[in-house]
Amino acid sequence: MTPDSPPPSASPPSGSSSRRGPLLVAGLGLAALLAGVALISRGGSQEQPSETSPTAANPKPKQGASPQGGPSGRVGPVAPAEPAKAPRFSSTVCWKELERFNEGVTIHNFREWAEPLLTSRDGLVRDFLKERLQELIGNNPAHALEVLEWSRDAQGKSFGVFLTAVRDSEAVHQPQVASRLLDMGLDNSLPAARRAGVLSALDTQKRLAPAALDKLTTFANDPVAGEAGWAAARTIARVMKREFKQNASISPYMDKLLTIGAQSPDEEIRYLGQMMPMHAAPLLSAEETERFAQILVGEGNEDGRDAAAHNLSLSTDKGRVLDLFAKTFETEQSLCVKWALFRFSARTAGKRALPVMANMAARDPRFQSIYADFERIYASGTLDFVRLYNSLPNQDPFNCLDRHE
Question: What is the CB neighbour count within 10 angstroms for residue 131?
């Protein structure tokens, strides 16, 4: 398989924000180009279906606002006793329509107004809708919760637009919003793919509370979690990586990933728990070293054993790891895992690992020429593992790295 607003205002926003500026400017340039193409294409015909022509479906409005306070545009005749209809937007979008939409849309009418625009094949239009909805949500948890309710029965591309807008909004960091996302992601009445999307929307959290970590871990280890369980494990790892960059303690996250890496019955989810710590590259404690050692010698998937060797090379107990690599090399059957044990011995202990690597090469002649390269590069004065590895004539002599590195 190939994972912190003021109350809403009833009045429409006064103008576009600086974030939308480049998109609309680029869109106006595109509109000019499309207009030229349209003139050529209309030359051979006098009629076009109104459903496919923005100008036919929505003629240019007169200046001024509509009586109901929305953007100006054709709303059709209004009977005295009937409310005015919402502005019509064609699925064949012109950028004038987006300007009209931008000027009058609010959180309360967004879903109705955006519905025809969401069928557009233009990715820029969907990007615009995501950003505009994100702005309307702002830091208001009530707005975010309302949009999450829309996503429950959203069809087609609207689900992704609604969920991404919540994920990238400031309100997603409000406790009630994060809690609702977690509850929806664990709700087995929703389709698995939709639950996976909801749980992935949690990965922008600044931190995960212990209770949330427990729930995500338990779910990832559920035999029927599937795609949503995979998203739960990835969310733990992504938040861990963010906390690691902030120099926060990541021990709770490592504990949960190692639990998933050892216990999940799903091989792909288990591998995710084993592999994701590599992206933060933390120094392993004695307990974490021992848990990765158990994965190295007991995991049935060779990719998982490879990942364990990678992580163990950053253990604080270098002697323990070097001895473990030497013993495991003797019984390991996978050439790619042997290559991991060999090269990560150098990452673990530097030049002091050469005797262990020499013994490995003596046991498996396929490593003899590679050992000679390591010995020569160390003799030249290069000690840093990254520089040494990049100096090798071939960094992937057994065609192993294209699988997951």
Answer: 18
Assigned token pair, 396: 């992937």
Closest CA to 195 of 227, 164, 169: 227
Q: Please name which of 239, 152, 229 lies closest in space to residue 202, comparing C-alpha atoms.
A: 239
Instruction: Supply the DSSP symbol for 64.
Output: S
| 225's tokens | 């979690």
Output the DSSP codes for 237-281. HHHHHHHHHTT---HHHHHHHHHHHHH-SSHHHHHHHHHGGGGT-
Q: Which amino acid is at 291?
A: R
Q: What value does the mean pLDDT take over residues 258-266?
A: 98
Query: How far is it, in rounded angstroms, from Cα 197 to Cα 165?
Result: 12
Residue by residue, DSSP assigns 42-58 as GGG-S---GGG-HHHHS
Mean pLDDT over 188-213 rounds to 96
pTM of the model: 0.76
pLDDT one-digit tens code per residue, 5-19 = 333 333 333 344 444
Show the tokens assigned to 69: 């306070």
Provide CB contacts within 8 A for 77, sequence distance 6+: none
Q: What is the average pLDDT score of the chain? A: 83
Identify which of 243, 163, 238 has the alpha carbon closest to the alpha carbon of residue 195. Answer: 163
C-alpha to C-alpha distances, 392 to 287, 309, 363, 374, nearest whole angstrom = 33, 20, 21, 8
